[in-house]
Amino acid sequence: MYKLLLAIKRINLLIAFTVLFVLHLAMYYLLHTEDWITVALSAAFVDTAVLSALQLYANFKTRAK
Predict the structure, then answer these.
(1) What integer pLDDT is reported at residue 42 of this predicted model?
(2) Grouped pLDDT means (10 residues each) for the chain, 65 residues
(3) What's the burial of 44, exposed, middle or buried (CB within 10 Å: 0-12/13-18/19+)?
(4) Cβ atoms 20, 44 nearer than 8 A
(5) Can you tell me the distance from the alpha carbon of 46 to that of 39, in angstroms, rounded to the nearest whole number?
(6) Are 11 and 51 contacting, i.e. CB atoms less than 8 angstroms apart?
(7) pTM given for the model
(8) Which of 11, 23, 37, 61 lies 20 to 30 Å (CA to CA) from residue 30?
């Protein structure tokens, strides 16, 4: 568990957002979603926010050790 938390702490949020945005763009484009750019942007923001919350949790848990 400790190694997983350390790996989560090292993730760069800007790079993660960019990768998630591109992947969501491709997915929603291939699914022929109307307004696919906005949906992809929203999904990438939500995923990055969850990752950010996980990083905060990892920072608090690994700081004590």
Answers:
(1) 97
(2) 89 96 98 96 97 94 76
(3) buried
(4) yes
(5) 11
(6) yes
(7) 0.86
(8) 11
